Amino acid sequence: MPTEPEPATLFKEVDESHLPKILAIYNYYVEHTTVSFHTEPLTLDEIRVNVMNASPKFKTFAILESDVLIGYVLLTQHKNKQAYDVTAEVTVYLDPNHLGRGVGSKAIAFVEEACRAGGFHVLVATICTENERSMRLFDRHGYVKCAHFQEVGLKFGRRLDIASYQKIIG
User: Fold this and answer.
1) How many CA atoms lie within 13 A of 119 on its CB side?
2) 58/65 Cα distance (integer angstroms)
3) Which one of 1, 39, 78, 166 is at 20 to 30 Å from 143 when CA atoms are compared?
4) What are the counts of helices (DSSP H) followed by strands (DSSP E) for the chain?
5) Nearest of 140, 153, 59, 66 to residue 106 by alpha carbon
6) Beta-carbon contacts of residue 125 (< 8 Å; ≥ 6 apart)
7) 61 burial class (0-12, 13-18, 19+ CB within 10 angstroms)?
8) Beta bridge mates, 160
9) Facing residues of 91 across strands?
10) What average pLDDT does the structure give for the chain?
11) Rounded Cα distance, 139 and 107, in Å
């Protein structure tokens, strides 16, 4: 019996119609994991502020398969100072039903190409160290661990570390 081909993964700049599904994905991670350091679910207005960037340089892309949103990837400002304008923070969120299928790797490859075209020089990812899946993903794609901050977060009664990874793409 032939296997069905994997659906094509497409990336589209986020618009208002994507926000309810993005909210559902994000709030899953808020409520069930230490992937997000929010401790309370966000509202639609709050997620809108987080993903609909005011600057055209920093974008959020919906990850689509067969016209179904299965995740999103954010490019956000690393620091609010002009000298950092060549650096972007990269964050990938996937619907938990779509983990382990290579979608994160496709998202990183896509966003790196978009960032090169957009004039970025460095990409940074900040990850809770309990999120071993994401640390391995960024490591596999050539990101180097450049910082480790101990016990900077408190969620579910646990003190949490974060690690920062960077890749020079320019």
Assistant:
1) 6
2) 23
3) 39
4) 4, 7
5) 140
6) 89, 90, 91, 134, 138, 143, 164, 165, 166
7) buried
8) 153
9) 74
10) 94
11) 14
> Do the bridges between strand 87-94 and strand 60-65 make them parallel or antiparallel, or are there none, so unpaired?
unpaired
The pLDDT tens digits for 35-77 are 999 999 999 999 999 999 878 889 999 999 999 999 999 999 9
Query: What are φ and ψ of residue 138, in 5° steps?
Result: -65, -35
- Per residue in 99-115, pLDDT tens? 988 999 999 999 999 99
Q: 103-117 and 132-140 helices cross at what angle (nearest 10)?
A: 50
pLDDT of 5 higher than 70: no
| CA neighbor of 45 nearest in space, from 68, 25, 69, 16 | 16
Q: Could you identify the residue written with the tokens 């901050």? A: 149
CA distance 67 to 4: 17
- Structural domains of the chain in order of their starting residue, each with its CATH number: 9-124 (3.40.630.30)
Helix intervals (H) in the chain: 19-32, 44-51, 103-117, 132-140
Which residue type, as a one-letter code, is found at position 63? Answer: I
Q: Helix, strand or coil for residue 134?
A: helix
Residue that the structure tokens 């609909």 belong to: 52
